Amino acid sequence: xxxxxxxxxxxxxxxxxxxxxxLVNSILHDEEVVAKVGNNMLxxxxxxxxxxxxxxxxxxxxxxxxxxxxxxxxxxYLDVAEKQLSKEQKDVSKELESYRRSLLKYRYEQxxxxxxxxxxxxxxxxxxYFKAHEEDFRLELPIVRARCMKILAESPDYEQIKELMASxxxxxxxxxxxxxxxxxxxxxxxxRWIDAAVLAEEMETDVRSILPLEAGGFVETAGSDGKRNxxxxxxxxxxxxxxxxxxxxxxxxxxxxxARKHRLTASLEQELLMDARDKGKxxxx
Length: 285
What we know:
- By secondary structure, the protein is of the alpha+beta class.
- It has helices at residues 4-28, 44-48, 57-84, 93-116, 123-132, 158-167, 173-177, 196-202, 245-278; strands spanning 33-37, 40-43, 143-151, 183-195, 218-222, 228-237.
C-alpha cells in the first residue's frame, strides 16, 4: 500500500519528468510541427531547408507538400514494419555493414583515382581511338551545322534576314543580325556539329517533322509564342554515316578517361592484395 506522502512524491516526480521532457523537446525543437505520424514529428525547418529561395509561393507549397507526403509515407511504412516484422527480420546490421564497406571502398577508390588520374587527352589519342572504333560512332540521326533564329511571323525583313543567314561568314552572322529587331533568339551552330534532335528542339518540334535535311536549305516551323522558327542548314552528314571526329570528341575523351580510371582501380586492388600478403595480413588456408 502506497503511503500518502509517497503518492504525492510520485505525482510530483511524474509532473517534473513530463515537464522536463517537454522542456528538452522545446529546446531541441522550439518551432512549428507541420506533420505527425505516430510519435514521429516533422518540423517546419526540416521542410523549408529543402525549398529553394526566391521561388513563387505556389511552387514552394507544392514542393513542401511533396516532401511532407513522402516523409509521411516513409513513416507509415516504418511504423507497420516495426510491428509486423520479427526481431530477426528487423536486424539489418549485416546489410548496414556491407553497405558501409562498399561505401568506404568507393570513397577511397575515388580519392586514389582523383590524386593520380591524368585528365589530359591529346588529339592523337582521340584520333587513334576514333580510327580503331569508327563503327561504334555510326550515326543514328543526321548531324548538321546550322544557324537558327526566331522571328516575327509578319516581319517585313524576313526574306532579307534569310539571305543573311545563308551568306554571312562564320562568326559574323549574329553581329549582322543586330540591326533587325524582329529577329531574336539567335543560335549559331555553324562552327560545330549538332544532331537532328538538338535542331528539332531549337525548332520546337519533333525530329521526324524536320527530315530530310539538305545542305543549303531552310527549315521553318511555327513557334509556341506565335513567332516563326527558322534554321539555315550549312552542311549535313546523313544518318548511317561515319561522322567527323570532332563530333565524337567529347564522347571519346570520356571513354578514354573511363578506361584510365578502370586501370587505376584494378591496379589499386592488386597492389593492396599483394601488400596484405607481404605483411601477413592476408592468408589463404
